[in-house]
Design a protein that fits this description.
It contains 11 helices and 8 strands. The chain binds 2-phosphoglycolic acid. The site of 2-phosphoglycolic acid has 13 residues, from strand 8.
Amino acid sequence: MRHKLVVGNWKMHGDRDLINRLVEGIIDGRPQISETVEIGICPTYLHIEQVAKLLLAANLKIRMGAQNVYCEEKGAYTGEVSAPMLAQLGVSLVIVGHSERRELFAESDALIAEKFKAIQANNMTPILCIGESLEQREQGITEEIVLAQLDAVIREAGIDVFNNAVIAYEPIWAIGTGKTATPDQAQEVHRIIREYLADQDTEVAAAIKILYGGSVKSGNARELFDQADIDGSLVGGASLEAAEFISICKSAD
Ligand code: PGA
């Protein structure tokens, strides 16, 4: 049985005060949620150490996450942060290939595959984001797009790497728009992803968590989580309010 995972992606939000309040709210709410539900939070790089200290002091089951990483270990890469640096701060989950990185920062499938490998090489778990645009959905090529994004990593790193990875299906048209995919729409793509993996390795497919992301909130989380192939969520906007985030996590119980 796959346990649920709910991860907050705080994107480029928060100052030190907001971060303190948010983390304290999540720490306060954690005991109300079953231990079997995994929770992760991904602040900006700059706030990781602040969050990690608060989590360490609270000693609760909340995983430290990051929103991005660079694929090289060290060197002349101005402005970048490496996987060993994140691992040293206690990060165990790293988002890779988010559509905002693909679109706004022109990240290619090849770079995403390299980042994915660097995350795993440092004993952290990648959360690989894949998803189609509205135009692609309307053209009827959702399956093709999503599987091509997945394949880019499988080709480069093999199927076995998905033994220690999470996939997040995030339709771009649903991110930050308030327009969530219906549970049926989301389930359909999750099923396609899992079947595609099963064609290559049934054990990997059965065990891997596939999260849904895109305007998830307390009002729609439960019906999404009830779907057979939805194993939790990557939550953006709604994770910036502790009570709302905790409420989403409770729906995963
Ligand atoms: P959203 O973002 O929940 O604000 O739509 C999700 C994401 O980008 O991961």
